Amino acid sequence: MSLRLSTVILPYRRWSEGGRSAWMRAEQLGFHTGYTYDHLSWRSFRDGPWFGAIPTLTAAAGVTDRLRLGTLVTSPNFRHPVTLAKELISLDDISGGRVTLGIGAGGTGFDATALGHEPWAPRERADRFAEFVPLLDRLLTEDGPEGVSYQGEHYSAHEARNIPGCVQRPRLPFAVAATGPRGLRLAARYGQAWVTTGDPKLYENGTPEQSVEALRGQVAKLTDACAAIGRDVTGLDKILLTGFTPDRGRPLQSLDAFVDFAGRHRELGFTEIVVHWPIPDSDFAADEKVFEQIAMEAPAQLR
After folding, report:
1. Cα separation of 8 and 56, whole Å?
2. What are φ and ψ of residue 51, in 5° steps?
3. Calpha distance 26→68 (Å, rounded)
4. 107 exposed, middle or buried (CB, 10 Å; 0-12, 13-18, 19+)?
5. Hey, CA dihedral for 180, 181, 182, 185, is it positive or negative?
6. How far is CA 283 from the centre of its chain?
7. Distance (Å, rounded) from C-alpha 208 to C-alpha 7?
8. Three-state DSSP class for residue 303
9. How far is Cα 23 from Cα 27, in angstroms, rounded to an integer?
């Protein structure tokens, strides 16, 4: 089984000052998908430039032809299914059907309070996510003139019309980020892919071997969630967003190091590895020449 290699390009640069060229270069290097984070601001980048995900992906669609585009990940923290669906349908149209929506329950970072409310407790985030995903699924698939109406505890829609619907049918794919039981059930039911960053408890003091075992356990739980609804887990893509396991930046230190890292995770069933585009003086700093060598040569070694 071949392993796809994708990248995530953080939206911290003006389009005219490196933003545009990064997306064009990602396509030239042969990456499968170019993702970006869908945050209002993020961690150490909060006090510097940070641009919106949907406009960035729309601009990227205009300067690429083959590269798939996506979010890692969108969350309910500052999104509503009705308005998000309209933006996604527009982006899917502009890109010619090249969009994947990475979607997760969100966390307690800056996005959680930017709209002026207290951060939601974990249970409320899970409750909202459990409403958000099914409603968004309906909004993106039911494109008839009668629209979509829904009244839930957290979200509602009234005759929301999304004509003509997505270019990709029946809708653009969802890559559901989840590790807990409720999220994994959503991934099994609604996802075309599943996303994980590994076990965050291992990031500081864990070992790469412990991380592999934790990921093995996550894949097993996803398999059980699929089996519970009669779905074959092999039909669900499995995406690892790197940079948050104990390996940190070591896989990008050389081609051999990356091939070894990616091969170990392919054995767990992962079908796509996502690496961060290098950012100097950050947690994602990496040698750009090595990064480009990995992009161009690693996929052939991982077939």
Report:
1. 12
2. -110, 165
3. 10
4. middle
5. positive
6. 19
7. 21
8. coil
9. 7
d(CA 127, CA 4): 32
Instruction: List the beta bridge partners of residue 70.
Output: 35, 100
Q: Which tens digits make up the pLDDT trace of 179-191?
A: 999 999 999 999 9
Summarised one tens digit per residue, pLDDT across range 36-55 is 999 999 999 999 999 999 99
pLDDT class of 303 with cuts at 50, 70, 90: confident
Beta-bridge partners for 157: 150
pTM attached to this predicted model: 0.97
Number of H helices and E strands in the chain, helices first, is 8, 10
Place of tokens 């699929």: 226
Q: Which residue has the tokens 């869908």?
A: 38
Q: Judging by DSSP bridges, how do beta strands 193-196 and 237-241 pair with one another?
A: parallel
CA gap 123, 79 in Å, rounded: 18
- Output 112-116 pairs: Cβ under 8 A, ≥24 positions apart: 112/77, 114/40, 114/41, 114/77, 114/78, 115/78
- Distance (Å, whole) CA 230 – CA 250: 39
| Helix, coil or strand: residue 74 | strand
